[in-house]
Amino acid sequence: MAVAAPTRRRVVTTLAAAVAGTFAVPAHAEAAGKKPGQQPGRRPLRRAHAHNDYEHERPLHDALSHGFTSVEADIFLVGGQLLVAHDPVDLDPSRTLESLYLAPLAARVRANHGSVYRGYRRPVQLLIDIKNDGAAAYLEVHRQLRRHRWMLSMYAHGHVRPGAVTPVISGDRTARAPMEAQRVRHAFYDGRLDDLGAVDPAPASFIPLISSNWTHSFTWQGAGPFPAAERAKLHALVSTAHGRGQRVRFWATPDLPGPARDAVWTELLTADVDHINTDDLAGLERFLRTHDA
Q1: How far is CA 20 from CA 2, 25, 151, 170, in A?
Q2: Which positions are tagged coiled coil (predicted)?
């Protein structure tokens, strides 16, 4: 059986925290206007989401080289800094949200005349998953995003202005209150399935994305036929979200290469799920480009 390309976490998980940043690259190590590893004429993949993107050898750059249009960064607020890691043991002061994501994205948008991918006018999503101290962490995220507001999607006084990059805040739910109180912000909120069933649901201008753990709603893991009731449920969830102008993402879907993963991904495409979640960048790129072909 084929094996997914190793992520940074798989490579360094047994190392001490002191060397957790060994594989990090400087923020501007990539030439901002280039798309390393992409074939000329290949368009970006609007459904491709890099789960725990920072665990790859080259955070952000590896995902962009495969055409991904959504990347995920987990952050901890530590001493006023936003450090990128999955677990506290992996924290490294050199691996910040600014150095791994915001600065490289800004350099690329400048080089590509206003977009992450040259000529691609859809926003690229930066999913920021807050791991601790949600309200305080969000306020620091907001402060840092303001420095890059020229390239970001923005909500201001009831209106949304799309930008080259759309930050979406996930994780610690206590970030929601300070976000809802803002009349001007440069990030949006990652909702849950409960938000779809709310009596007075928040608008897409606040919650443009609905994310959920696949295993909390579905028993099917790709082996055998998709139960009819579960398929109907999936299509109903997506239809409801799309009717409100919201996108849909599931995490914890099967991610080992093989027929089961392909079967689940095929059902997600058929249901028009907006973001397919993976750690296997090359595998999802092959799947989506083959499907498009």
Answers
A1: 27, 12, 30, 24
A2: none
Enter the tokens of residue 194. Answer: 């409960």
The pLDDT tens digits for 161-191 are: 999 999 999 999 999 999 999 999 999 999 9
What does each C-alpha distance from 9 to 15, 52, 56, 132 come to in angstroms? 10, 9, 7, 20
What lies within 8 Å, CB to CB, of 66 at 6+ separation is 37, 38, 45, 48, 281, 282, 284, 285
Q: What is the pLDDT of residues 229-272, one digit of tens each?
A: 999 999 999 999 999 999 999 999 999 999 999 999 999 999 99
Q: Are strands 81-84 and 68-78 parallel, antiparallel or unpaired?
A: antiparallel
CA distance 9 to 45: 24
User: CA–CA separation, 79 vs 238, rounded Å?
Assistant: 40
- Residue 180, Cα to own-chain centre: how many angstroms? 21
CB 34 within 8 A of CB 287: no
CA dihedral 287→250→126→288, nearest 10 degrees, is 10
Domain annotation for the chain: domains and CATH numbers: 38-292 (3.20.20.190)
What is residue 242's three-state secondary structure?
helix
Q: How confident is the model at residue 19 (pLDDT cuts 50, 70, 90)?
A: very low
